Amino acid sequence: VVAPTGIERVRFDNLLAVSDVLSVHASLTDASRGFIDKRAFARMKEGVYFVNTARGELIDESALLSALNSGRVAAAAMDVLSGEP
């Protein structure tokens, strides 16, 4: 824990497992393309709220749809999609 803010650094998998809301704010690079994939959604807390206002290509949209249909993701809000100009 970083005092006095109470911020704690955690591994990405741990962040996915404990977050009630996950909001993506990342640039698109070859390394980050598709980094929120089926594996990431499977590690998310059941009923998580997912927000992406970064780049559509960061998200595997098919995996997101599956996660929404299964209830793993309770709701998703995005102002970006893959394939945008």
Q: What report would you give on this structure?
A:
The protein contains three helices and three strands; from the N terminus they run αβαβαβ. By secondary structure, the chain is an alpha/beta fold. It has one domain: Rossmann fold (3-Layer(aba) Sandwich), CATH 3.40.50. The protein has a three-stranded parallel β-sheet with strand order 1-2-3.
The CATH homologous superfamily is named NAD(P)-binding Rossmann-like Domain
Number of separate strands: 3
The portion of residues forming beta strands comes to 15-25%
What sequence of helices (H) and strands (E) makes up the elements?
Answer: HEHEHE
At CATH level 2, the architecture is 3-Layer(aba) Sandwich
Distance between the termini: 41 Å
Kindly provide the radius of gyration, computed on alpha-carbon positions and rounded to a whole number of angstroms: 13 Å
* Global morphology: globular
Number of domains: 1
**How would you write the strand order of the largest sheet?**
1-2-3
Give the SSE map.
Elements: H1 12-18, E1 21-24, H2 38-43, E2 48-52, H3 61-70, E3 73-78
Parallel strand pairs: 1-2, 2-3
Task: Summarize it.
The protein is an alpha/beta fold. The chain has three helices and three strands. The chain has a single domain, classed as NAD(P)-binding Rossmann-like Domain (Rossmann fold).
Which terms summarize this structure?
single chain; three-stranded parallel beta sheet; 85 residues; alpha/beta; 27% helix; 3 helices; Rossmann fold; 18% strand
